[in-house]
Automatic annotation (TrEMBL):
Stretches that traverse the bilayer: 39-56, 63-81, 87-108
Protein name as it appears in the record: DUF423 domain-containing protein
Native species: Deinococcus cellulosilyticus (strain DSM 18568 / NBRC 106333 / KACC 11606 / 5516J-15)
Similarity-based family: Belongs to the UPF0382 family.
Taxonomic superkingdom: Bacteria
Upper classification of the organism: Bacteria, Thermotogati, Deinococcota, Deinococci, Deinococcales
Entry-linked InterPro entries: DUF423 (IPR006696)
Gene Ontology cellular component list: plasma membrane
Amino acid sequence: MTLFYAALLGGLGVASGAFGAHALKDMLPADLLATFETGVRYQMYHALALLGLGAARFKSRGILFLFLGTLIFSFSLYLLALTGVRVLGAITPIGGVLQIIGWVMVALDARKAKW
C-alpha cells in the first residue's frame, strides 16, 4: 500500500507542478504561485519518502499519517492559491502536524526495528 500512496502522490505532484508552471504562471500573483509551488514541493518530498519506505518494505504506523498529512497540507495550499481565500491557510497546519506525527512514528518504528 505504501508504494500505491507514493505513486499517487508522485503522479498528482507532477500533474500539479505542470499545471502550476504552465496554466497558472501568468494567472496568479507571485505570492499565490509561490504558495502553490510549496504545496507541490512538499507533496513530491513525501512521495519520494514513501517510495523509499515502500521499496525498503519498512513497516511503520507513520506511513498513513505521512500520506494523509501530505494530502491535507498540499491540497489546502492548492485551494488557497487557486481561490485566494486566505482562511484555507488555517487548514494547512493540520496537514503539517500529521506529517510531523508520521515522521516521529517512522523514527520510533525504525528504532524499534533497529533500522
